[in-house]
């Protein structure tokens, strides 16, 4: 059964009293996971969460990736390979983050399509170092959007007075954005 069919049939597969996440969805809420890790994607667990628990989106940020990378062996081979290529720490982080976000976005794409773009997003954050730089935030949001290359990503922009125009600029271009608290 595909994800879109699963979304339509969730009520028949589990009662809401058995699964509080389905109760949330039934009441119009969209459960998102504030976590991402390679094994979550490759093990099939993310697909299960989408299909069986009604997961509607995921957030990411540098701290989430730091915990995922430091707390598992999921990235060991790739870290070794990218380090051997002479990549900087920032470039390694971005390569890992973009790959995982692309794969998660691919799994959430049926949700995005079935909900007419209301749900099914994975977020990626503009660097908090750009929190006071409107033009830098605009350029970084555009670069990240192009690098990920998925329509169901949401770029988070630091929630500062300078971030507001960056969000408006990108929304005018039909890119999903929202403000987030700077770290």
Task: Please name the defining characteristics of this protein.
disordered N terminus, five-stranded parallel sheet, alpha/beta, 9 helices, 183 residues
Q: Helix tally?
A: 9
Radius of gyration: 17 Å
Structural class: alpha/beta
Order of helices and strands: HHEHHEHHHEHEHE
Proportion of beta-strand residues: 5-15%
Mean pLDDT: 87
Tally of individual domains = 2
Strand sequence of the main sheet, in spatial order?
1-2-3-4-5
Task: Give a written overview of the molecule.
The chain has two domains: 1-55 and 63-118, no CATH class; 126-183. Helix content is 55%, strand content 10%. The chain is built from nine helices and five strands, in the order H-H-E-H-H-E-H-H-H-E-H-E-H-E. The protein has helices spanning 3-13, 20-26, 38-42, 45-53, 62-70, 76-84, 89-114, 134-148, 163-172, and strands spanning 32-33, 57-58, 121-125, 153-158, 177-180. Helix 8 (134-148) links the parallel strand 3 (121-125) and strand 4. Helix 1 (3-13) packs across helix 4 and helix 8 (134-148) packs across helix 9. It is globular, with a radius of gyration of 17 Å. The termini are far apart. Mean pLDDT is 87; it is low at 1-12.
Protein topology:
Layout: H1 3-13, H2 20-26, E1 32-33, H3 38-42, H4 45-53, E2 57-58, H5 62-70, H6 76-84, H7 89-114, E3 121-125, H8 134-148, E4 153-158, H9 163-172, E5 177-180
Parallel strand pairs: 1-2, 2-3, 3-4, 4-5
Concise structural overview:
The protein has 183 residues and is α/β, with parallel strands linked by helices. Helices cover 55% and strands 10% of the residues. The protein folds into 2 domains: 1-55 and 63-118, no CATH class; 126-183.
């Amino acid at each position: 059964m595909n994800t879109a069919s699963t979304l339509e049939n969730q009520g028949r597969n589990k009662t809401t009293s058995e699964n509080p996440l389905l109760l949330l969805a039934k009441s119009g809420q969209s459960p998102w996971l504030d976590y991402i890790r390679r094994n979550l994607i490759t093990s099939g667990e993310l697909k299960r969460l989408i299909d069986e628990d009604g997961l509607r989106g995921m957030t990411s940020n540098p701290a989430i990736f730091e915990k995922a990378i430091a707390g598992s062996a999921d990235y060991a081979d790739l870290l070794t390979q990218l380090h051997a290529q002479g990549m900087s720490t920032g470039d390694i982080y971005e390569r890992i983050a973009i790959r995982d976000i692309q794969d998660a976005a691919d799994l959430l794409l049926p949700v995005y399509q079935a909900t007419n773009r209301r749900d099914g997003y994975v977020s990626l954050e503009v660097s908090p170092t750009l929190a006071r730089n409107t033009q830098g935030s605009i350029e970084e949001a555009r670069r990240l959007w192009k690098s990920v290359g998925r329509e169901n990503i949401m770029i988070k922009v630091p929630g500062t007075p300078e971030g507001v125009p960056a969000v408006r600029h990108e929304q005018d271009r039909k890119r999903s954005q929202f403000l987030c608290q700077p770290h």
